[in-house]
Amino acid sequence: MSRPPLPDDADIRLRRLGAFERSLATLPWFAAAGSPLDTSERKDVAAYLTSLGITFQAIQETPKWSDARDTVNRKDFSPQWWKNEEKFRQGLTQQASAVLGEDMLHTRLTRISQNASDLLQGTASVALSRSDIADAGLAKSAAGAASMAVHQAALALAANCSGEHPFAAKFRLYQSGHWPLGLYDGVFHIL
Questions:
Q1: Angstrom distance (rounded) from CA 66 to CA 18
Q2: Cβ-based neighbours of 101, under 8 Å, separated by 6 or more
Q3: Rounded distance, CA 137 to CA 125, Å?
Q4: In a domain? residue 16
Q5: What pLDDT score was predicted for residue 76?
Q6: Which of 176, 175, 165 is nearest to 37 (CA)?
Q7: How, if at all, do strands 187-190 and 180-184 pair?
Q8: Which of 8, 18, 115, 171 is deepest in the core (most CB within 10 A)?
């Protein structure tokens, strides 16, 4: 049984999602972890947080994977950051579902997320091993965070958002090889 033809806009969005999915294997995941942010990356951090409605005091560049482990285990994580991301995710889901349909959107995002998860677990482990760290939990945390960013970026693409969307800015940080660790006590940490 063939599926009914999709409106042109839906077909275009699905093709963009396909290209996005294929590009994931070519990205330098975690390759710049610990290296200084350049000007455009700092702008992406600021655009990402400001677009989410998050006030932050500073950007803290985390120099080592061991420091990243300490950061993600801190207790002063900002729940507002996650709540604001969740509001954006819900809005994008409604927008994308209106064009693609709930089933099609769910199917595509699930496939993209699963493929990304499989890829990212390995790349995170390799990045850690290059720093002489064998920490399956930290690799899983890094891969999980990157997988979430992939899902969010794909959702923004499915909703036909521009590169100005906060999820696009967040994804560019991963695209450049960094790991955004989160907002802790008003300071945004990134490896």
A1: 35
A2: 10
A3: 10
A4: no
A5: 93
A6: 176
A7: antiparallel
A8: 171
Q: Structure tokens of 3?
A: 């599926």
Each residue of 110-138: pLDDT tens digit? 999 999 999 999 999 999 999 999 999 99
Residue-range definition of the domain harbouring residue 172: 29-190
Q: Domain for residue 79, yes or no?
A: yes
**Chain centre to alpha carbon of residue 164:** 14
- pLDDT of 4 reads 55
Q: Report which residue type is found at 7.
A: P
Question: Could you tell me if residue 147 is inside a domain?
Answer: yes
In the predicted model, what is the mean pLDDT of the chain? Answer: 94
3-state secondary structure 76-136: CECHHHHHHHHHHHHHHHHHHHHHHCHHHHHHHHHHHHHHHHHHHHHHHHHHHHHCCCCCH
pLDDT digits (tens, 9 = 90+) for 7-66: 688 999 999 999 999 999 999 999 999 999 999 999 999 999 999 999 999 999 999 999
pLDDT value, residue 8 = 82
Residue 102 lies in a domain: yes
Q: In whole angstroms, what is the distance from residue 145 CA to residue 174 CA?
A: 10
Average pLDDT over residues 168-191: 97
